[in-house]
Amino acid sequence: MSLTVLASAYRLKPLHRLQRIQAHLMSSHVEPEVLLEKVGRTGVITINRPKVLNALNLTMIRQIYPQLKKWENDSEVDIVIIKGAGGKAFCAGGDIRAVTEAGKAGGSLAQDFFREEYILNNAIGAYRKPYIAIIDGITMGGGVGLSVHGRFRVATEKTLFAMPETAIGLFPDVGGGYFLPRLRGKLGLFLALTGFRLKGRDVQRAGVATHFVESNKIPDLEKELVDLKCPSNADISKLLEFHQKQSSLDSEKPFVLEKHLSEIDRLFSSSSVEGIMQNLRADGSDFANKQAETLSKMSPTSLKITFKQLQLGAALSLQDVLVMEYRLSQACMRGCDFHEGVRAGKLLLWWE
Length: 352
Fold this sequence. Notes:
This is 3-hydroxyisobutyryl-CoA hydrolase. Pfam families: ECH_2. The protein has 352 residues and is α/β, with parallel strands linked by helices. The protein is built from 18 helices and 10 strands. A 6-stranded mixed sheet has the order 1-2-3-5-7-10, with helices on both faces.
């Protein structure tokens, strides 16, 4: 049926009819939420929901996981690159509004989403081929799970990292119980409890990213990665280090938490959350007071769960941590804090 015939059915003025129908047809074209491509001998995953900062949903997980397994066993694929579309975010987190809505309706999404997300996280951590995450933009929650367990994580000046889950009645999942306690000193516990945001080069300085490359150099880096012939981890490291040396932006600035690292180690060394709060209040410094104020706004239940999660996770494998976190996630789904945190709009703290 032609546009003109369709327009007559709308009983609108001819020009308006055509414009309205053309707009409808254009809007009905749905972009894939994940782009999966093979470029030469490189598997490329592009998270493609830029309007919602590439938030991760179950459909996307079910596309990414089998493709990763297929490429892992494909003799014609040497490396995998994962990145985000749109220029603002790598992945700003899981689409947890959908999870909470399904939970209210009695659906199984809360079980399916967390279980399959954690299976994907574990697959990334155990991946037998070089896995390179280009975390150019906002990288929080589920986006951290898609990147931090891979062998290579490339931050740019646009990277914004945080694990802000204690603000919404959850905990830093996606393997946070594994990688956070393995950061230096008490830095991981500090990041987990406070949701402190790291930006740009500081994401690498903290140990979350392995390399830093300026955003405008990323296209060249990607091309050179694709052009590598049967690269080893050492070959990729060498290339990433070369591009890092060409990236001087903010190289003279100290780590944002550098002058507070000894304070963090001292103040966050305790056998309980209550002990940490006592340390902060007794210290009385501006830094300590600010952290005490931040923690007072978080879910008390989430703080206690997170503290124990990292305490136990320090001695567990990634797989065992993810099993523990799945059980914790389902306990949180049965509680009140998580649903209230999302309902109250605290989710917006992730993306502001």
